[in-house]
Design goal:
alpha/beta; globular; 7 strands; 7-stranded mixed beta sheet; 7 helices
Length: 206
C-alpha cells in the first residue's frame, strides 16, 4: 500500500491530487515503515495526514501538534497536543527521551515559525531519522508577503544552503542550533512541484 494511496484515501493535500509530495516521501521512507516507532507532525488541520501516517507506519505512535484543540482525532495510536508553533517554550515542551523517527512541519507555513521549529526540534530527532519541512513556496513570490518571503534568510534559502553544504544561519535560531543542524545533517534535498507552487524538503540526520 503506497503512501499516495493512503493520502488519497484520507484526502490529505500531500497526495498527487494536491501538492504531489507523497510519491517523493514514499521513495525515501518505504523501507522504514515497520521500524519507525514515533512520528511527530506539526499542523493537524482536519487530521487526514495523521491517519495516513498511522496506516503507513503500523508500529508507530503518531503525535499531532496544532495551535487549536484537535483531540477529536485522537485514537489508540494518534494523540494530539495544543502547541503554538511560534512559541519556543511550547516547542521545547515536546522534547523528551523518546525521540521521534520522523518530524513533519506542515504547520503555519510562516517562515519565522518554520526556522524556529527546525532549530528547536532537529536536535530532538533520532539519529538516522528524517525531518520534512513542507510548503517552502511561502518563501517565494508564489506566496503573500505576510509569510515572510521578503526575508533575506528565508526558509527556502536556509534549506538551499544546507543542500549546497553551507553553514546556513537564521535570525530565528541560535548560532548553536544552526551549527548543530549543519554538523548533523547527512543529506538534504528540495523537491519542487507544479512550477514552484508546491515545494517540500526532506533531510536525514546523521
Amino acid at each position: 500500500m503506497t503512501l499516495d494511496f493512503l493520502a488519497e484515501k484520507y484526502n490529505t493535500d500531500k497526495g498527487c491530487s494536491g501538492h504531489g509530495f507523497t510519491n517523493i516521501y514514499d521513495m525515501i521512507l518505504s523501507k522504514h515503515t515497520e521500524e519507525f516507532k514515533k512520528i511527530l507532525e506539526i499542523g493537524v488541520f482536519y487530521g487526514a495526514s495523521l491517519k495516513m501516517w498511522s496506516d503507513y507506519f503500523p508500529n508507530a505512535n503518531i503525535i499531532g501538534c496544532d495551535i487549536d484543540d484537535k483531540t477529536q482525532y485522537d485514537t489508540d495510536r494518534i494523540s494530539t497536543l495544543k502547541i503554538d508553533q511560534g512559541n519556543r517554550n511550547a516547542l521545547t515542551s515536546l522534547i523528551n527521551d523518546n525521540k521521534p523517527d520522523l518530524i513533519i512541519d506542515d504547520g503555519s507555513h510562516m517562515i519565522c515559525h518554520q526556522l524556529l521549529t527546525i532549530g528547536v526540534l532537529f536536535p530532538y530527532l533520532k539519529s538516522g531519522g528524517y525531518y520534512i519541512l513542507e510548503d517552502l513556496h511561502t518563501s517565494t513570490t508564489h506566496a503573500p508577503s505576510f509569510y515572510g518571503a521578503d526575508s533575506v534568510r528565508n526558509a527556502y534559502k536556509f534549506i538551499s544552503d544546507l543542500c549546497a553544504g553551507y553553514h546556513a544561519q537564521s535570525e530565528y535560531m541560535s548560532n548553536e542550533e544552526s551549527s548543530y543542524i549543519y554538523d548533523n545533517i547527512e543529506d538534504a534535498i528540495i523537491f519542487s512541484k507544479h512550477n514552484g507552487t508546491s515545494i517540500t524538503s526532506i533531510f536525514k540526520k546523521k
